[in-house]
Amino acid sequence: MKKLLFLLFMFCLVCGTLICRALTNKNVLFVNADKTALKGTLNNKVEKETEEDIFYAKFFRKKPQCKIFGKQLLKQAIKDPYFFYIVDKKNLLPADYNPQDLIGEGKYAVRKQTKEAFDKMAEAAKQDGISLGILSGFRPYSRQEYLFNRSVQTRGQAHADKYVARPGASQHQLGLAADINSVEDSFVNTKEYAWLKENACKYGFSLSFPKGQEEKTGYAFEPWHYRYITSEGCKMQKEHFNDSQVDFLEAINACLPQN
């Protein structure tokens, strides 16, 4: 009987040892697999970052003046050349250019990024008792053509050239610009304009045609017309380009690889 119990004990001991070894080996395999997967992920990330770092290192050596913009703004400009595109009387958009990410109906539509930023700005304004709305957003080439010709017919060529964009010369076609609340000169005397003047840049909106820059912009002062250039871009405009949208856009466009 004792011998039988002893043999049973030894059998259990051996089985227990084998089971423990199997479990240990399995855990080791899992740990090694996890380490291998993690190593692969890290290597891929490092490789990707290295390729990007190499690109910008070469880019900044070639164009050192562009380093001021940093990677984030340049990535936006390179990814979407129309985002910081200069649109004025000398630089026209193609008649068939229409952004593909418009949000909203008809003349109230703007690009997705612009809409998201505007909604945040409008909500912040609301907290201060200010109501903001997009009176006019995206404007296709055909609509610009109609408005310009109507202005020429009703108010003359000189008035049209000063106050109305020719077809293809309107920032509205980018889907990044918006007339906010009004298109009357009296808007400059409102609390809404005062709030925008103080806060719009925080949300990435830059006044396109400021007072005192008529010769540079080619248009009369419009206190209601804002273009979305991102909060980083707007901050850069204020700090490094004398708060001139034209100067900022010219500088960042000069930094695009194809220029």
Walk me through this protein's architecture.
This protein has a domain at 82-254: Muramoyl-pentapeptide Carboxypeptidase, domain 2 (2-Layer Sandwich). Helices cover 55% and strands 7% of the residues. It has helices spanning 2-62, 70-79, 112-127, 141-155, 157-163, 191-199, 214-217, 231-240, 245-254, and strands at 102-103, 110-111, 134-136, 177-180, 205-207, 225-228. It has a four-stranded antiparallel β-sheet, with helices on one face. The chain has a two-stranded antiparallel sheet with strand order 1-2.
List the helices and strands and how they pair.
Layout (H helix, E strand, L loop, with lengths): L1 H61 L7 H10 L22 E2 L6 E2 H16 L6 E3 L4 H15 L1 H7 L13 E4 L10 H9 L5 E3 L6 H4 L7 E4 L2 H10 L4 H10 L5
Antiparallel strand pairs: 1-2, 3-4, 4-6, 5-6
Helix pairs in contact: 4-5
Short description:
The protein is an alpha+beta fold and 259 residues long. It contains 9 helices and 6 strands; from the N terminus they run ααββαβααβαβαβαα.
Features:
259 residues; alpha+beta; Muramoyl-pentapeptide Carboxypeptidase, domain 2; four-stranded antiparallel beta sheet; two-stranded antiparallel ribbon; 9 helices; 55% helix
Can you identify the CATH class of the domain at 82-254? Alpha Beta
Distance between the termini: 96 Å
Beta-strand residue fraction: 5-15%
- Helical fraction equals 40-55%
Helical stretch tally: 9
Number of strands: 6
Biggest sheet character = 4 strands, antiparallel
Reported CATH architecture of the domain at 82-254? 2-Layer Sandwich
Kindly report the CATH topology of the domain at 82-254: Muramoyl-pentapeptide Carboxypeptidase, domain 2
Structural class computed from helices and strand pairing: alpha+beta
